[in-house]
UniProtKB/TrEMBL annotation, chain A:
Gene3D superfamilies: 3.30.465.10, CO dehydrogenase flavoprotein, C-terminal domain (3.30.390.50), Uridine Diphospho-n-acetylenolpyruvylglucosamine Reductase, domain 2 (3.30.43.10). GO terms for molecular function: FAD binding; oxidoreductase activity. Residues 1-221 form the FAD-binding PCMH-type domain. Pfam families: CO_deh_flav_C, FAD_binding_5. This is Xanthine dehydrogenase YagS FAD-binding subunit. The keyword Thylakoid does not apply.
Automatic annotation (TrEMBL), chain B:
Keywords: 2Fe-2S, Iron, Iron-sulfur, Metal-binding, Oxidoreductase. This is Xanthine dehydrogenase YagT iron-sulfur-binding subunit. GO terms for molecular function: 2 iron, 2 sulfur cluster binding; metal ion binding; oxidoreductase activity, acting on the aldehyde or oxo group of donors. Residues 59-135 form the 2Fe-2S ferredoxin-type domain. It holds the Pfam family Fer2. The lineage of its organism: Bacteria, Pseudomonadati, Bacteroidota, Flavobacteriia, Flavobacteriales. It comes from Flavobacterium saccharophilum.
Length: 326, 213
């Protein structure tokens, strides 16, 4: 690993200022992804700004919303009794991710900023437009079993690996950020982006803004929810396909619904059109199957990952069935 | 069953182990010196600008390991795992994958199990670290260590320090209420010998025995 300078920030303002001045500076919190990437020489910052001393760890239940500090640990959120009660989908998604040791280290903000696990991104001997812009994409025509079926481009077919983000996208969360020009809010579904011609950009943060918290508006998705994660082993593996399903069912009718997929795109894949289709319908397997078929509109495989075109809709039916029968 | 070793044989074996380890440590030091880039040597000789000299810079670190306070200097890039093994010579904590995938490096920091290979030592100011070496009280092993021996919770033993540290935390966290739950919450510790069944037995036994920390 290339050596670097490390400084400790004592306020979010000083953190933002200390990083804005230097081109090759980065924030570090849990480090579970960044340290790994630095060991592989995928990223090589000159300076790290340690933000772990900042007061951004609180989980607060405010009027109309829940606020989760960017430095709250993944395990802290997943095991918070009030989160389990009010946002069980989020707790389920978090528990489905990584291992308990990593959940103890990883933060909410860091989870959002984790990089793709595409093997071409990690292997510095291979071309990768995300790692080195304009160097090519090894995954297109290469080993692409884990890769995207939605929203990919000729430059990149990588997927965002997070489980937590799939739940947050489904729950209409917002991201609070602070930068040199002040604070602003980003809709969670606008936070991550599609690769287009600039896959080196994972998200819409500007000028090294700092994520300070994530907010989830209050909702009725406390019972009929499920996070289904399909993976190569039963625990501690990234998703081949995952589905976050949240239903508000009254008298067997779907009053409201949220649906998002993970492991299928460069960002958490929210299925708003499918949600509109399901609203007002009576719960049935036929309706869920029709919803799943609708969800696959525009999907395409790249060879090794063609199985996701079948696994995807099956996972949607399964998640909706489990969620609706709770 | 192998004949019990005489005390003399045991002493010889201990001595040869010690000298082997000493040799590795010393030769490791020579390798490090040999690998110092010539530019650094030149930088210090010629008093070049601080950016190049900066590569030699360390940061002060106060850290408590197994109850012993340590005042050290570490390079910013040194992981907690390398600090434990290379600077403090606590080689019980193992380096498996060094990329957060195997759990062999699991230690407790401020009472929580974490992966020391993905933790920068320079970010652990005033932390309290417990490693496998810090579990026993004198010659009395921790109940989890006893249970791993009794239940054959290992074959080659390389993942065992991480498994034991993780197993203790698993119970303390309240995630050892069933075999399924133990399997889920121990999934970050890989055992390529496949001793999982016996590891779950060991953790279950300690849990049912009412482990005292």
């Amino acid at each position: 690993m290339k050596n670097f300078q490390i400084i400790r920030a004592l306020s979010s303002k000083s953190a933002v200022i200390s990083i804005a001045k230097e081109k090759e500076a980065m924030f570090i919190a849990g480090g579970t992804n960044l340290v790994d990437l630095m060991k592989k020489n995928v990223v090589a910052p000159d300076k790290l700004v340690d933000i772990t001393a900042l007061d951004l760890k609180k989980i607060e239940f405010l009027t109309g919303k829940t606020s989760i500090g960017a430095l709250a640990k993944n395990s802290q959120v997943a095991e918070d009794k009030a989160i389990i009660e009010k946002h069980p989908l989020l707790a389920m998604a978090l528990t489905a991710g990584a291992s308990q040791q990593i959940r103890h280290m990883a933060t909410v903000g860091g989870n959002m900023l984790q990089r793709t696990r595409c093997s071409y991104f990690y292997n510095t001997d291979m071309p990768c437009n995300k790692r080195v812009p304009k160097s090519g994409c090894g995954a297109i025509g290469g080993s692409n079993r884990m890769h995207a079926i939605f929203g990919a481009s000729d430059s990149c077919i990588a997927v965002h690996p997070s489980d937590m983000c799939v739940a947050l996208a489904a729950l209409d969360a917002t991201v609070q950020v602070e930068g040199p020009k002040g604070k602003r809010e980003i809709k969670f579904t606008d936070f991550h982006r599609l690769p287009g011609n600039t896959p080196e950009k994972d998200n819409t943060l500007q000028n090294k803004e700092l994520i300070t918290s994530v907010e989830i508006p209050n909702n009725n998705f406390t019972k009929n929810v499920h996070y289904l994660k399909v993976r190569d082993r039963s625990s501690y593996a990234f998703a081949l396909v995952s589905v976050a399903a949240a239903l508000d069912i009254q008298n067997n009718t779907i009053n409201d619904v949220r649906l998002a997929m993970g492991g299928v795109a460069h960002k958490p894949w929210r299925l708003t059109e499918v949600e509109e289709f399901l609203k007002g319908k009576t719960v049935s397997e036929t309706i869920f199957r029709q919803a799943a078929d609708l969800a696959m509109k525009g999907a395409r495989g790249y060879g090794d990952n063609d199985f996701k075109l079948t696994l995807g809709p099956n996972a949607i039916v399964e998640a909706l069935t489990i969620a609706s029968s709770k | 069953m192998a004949a019990k070793k005489s005390t003399k044989d045991k002493l010889i074996e201990d001595e040869s182990n010690a000298s082997r380890r000493d040799f590795l440590k010393k030769s490791g030091l020579f390798t490090a010196l040999a690998l110092a880039p010539p530019s650094l040597v030149m930088a210090s000789e010629n008093k070049w600008d601080e950016k190049i000299a900066g590569y030699l810079e360390t940061v002060p670190l106060s850290i408590e390991v197994n109850g012993v306070k340590q005042n050290l200097n570490v390079e910013p890039r040194t992981t907690l795992l390398d600090l434990l093994r290379e600077q403090l010579h606590l080689t019980g904590t193992k380096k498996g994958c060094d990329h957060g995938q195997c759990g062999a490096c699991t230690v407790h920091v401020n009472g929580t199990r974490i992966l020391s290979c993905l933790t920068l030592a320079s970010m652990q100011q005033n932390a309290q670290v417990t490693t496998i070496e810090g579990l026993s009280k004198g010659k009395k092993l921790h109940p989890m260590q006893e249970a791993f021996i009794k239940n054959d919770g290992f074959q080659c033993g390389y993942c065992t320090p991480g498994q034991i540290m993780s197993g203790i935390a698993c119970i303390k966290e309240g995630h050892a209420n069933s075999r399924e739950e133990i399997r889920e919450y121990m999934s970050g510790n890989i055992c390529r010998c496949g001793a999982y069944h016996n590891i779950v037995d060991a953790i279950t036994e300690v849990k049912e025995g009412g482990m005292s920390s």
